[in-house]
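Now for a chain:

_____
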Amino acid sequence: MSNLENTIKLTVESLGASLYDIVTTRENDRNIYRIYVTAQGGISLDKCAEISRMISPILDVDEPMSGEYILEVSSPGIERKLKKTEHYLASIGEKVKVKDVATDVFKGELIAANDETITIKTEFGEETLSYDSIISGSTYFEW
């Protein structure tokens, strides 16, 4: 984690939320520096605005992207990417979709996760995967 990411993490935590992820992207010819935050019981628009106001001066000093960019602070939403061990640990009991190195896709309820593996209850039974074998993962919502 860079110094900037650590400063952002500490700032977010001081405001009663948790840093979920930081993503840099380009949309409609604009650079976007997107900070995803979570909080117990959900994150409100007011909380996102408060975090944005506190982080903006930090980014003025330590620019995260060259040139102009837009700062966005938001919740990762119902369907969110799972990148870190903490993301999987926080998603136990939710529906997940995971792709492994053999490009097999496993869909089902995440029933267990620890520092090395996750276990998904699929329609075919339980599948245990090591983080090393996971290419991508996300939660999903069935409407």
Notes: Strands lie at 18-27, 30-38, 70-74, 95-100, 105-113, 117-122, 125-130, 134-139. The chain has two domains: 3-74, 85-139.
